[in-house]
Amino acid sequence: MDIFRLIQDIRKHLNLSFDxxxxxxxxxxxxxxxxxxxxxxxxxxxxxxxxxxxFYLLILIEKGxxxxxxxxxxxxxxxxxxxxxxxxxxxEKVGEYGAFEWIRPEHMEPKGELNLNEIRSLISQQYHQCLxxxxxxxxxxxxxCKTTMTVNGLGKINVYEYIYFLSLHAQRHVTQMKNNELxxxxx
Length: 187
Hints:
This is DinB superfamily protein. The protein is mainly alpha-helical. Helix content is about 60%, strand content about 5%. It has helices at about 5-25, 30, 45-70, 75-85, 90, 115-135, 160-185, and strands spanning about 145-150, 155-160. The chain has a two-stranded antiparallel ribbon with strand order 1-2. A hairpin with a 5-residue loop joins strand 1 and strand 2. The longest helix is centred in the first third of the chain and has 29 residues, at about 45-70. It starts with a helix and ends with a helix. The model has no long low-confidence stretch (mean pLDDT about 95).
């Protein structure tokens, strides 16, 4: 496994996902506040949900990265890199809106307590946090800690895969926001 290529690919995916998310903050108020006919979230609520989900995922990513860096002292990183195979296909559904039932915890539901500028700033900070973790674990150390991810039965995933999951989650909601905007245009 070329771990450097994996880190580069995750960095690229993060960049594309977060750039796409950021563009939604520039939409007009009518688009941002349109409630879809299915009773779902407005785009502003979706953006807040992305921030909240990132917040909680980043807690796990931070803990995982610290543990991975500690494990570096006791585990054979080169052996872990040789054994590792990234199963991208296993993760693809996470980025597809509506691909499977996703029951999110209540603490990840938007409450309308933050304004759009605050959400945008926080999501930008989260993007930079992800990049910092990739820089910290630049030699493959992220393979040295696995944490269980229950969403879509992913099971034990390493820190890099958690960061990729975070990026895919944002991508999933970009599709949802596009659907909302299309409905706005039709009405």
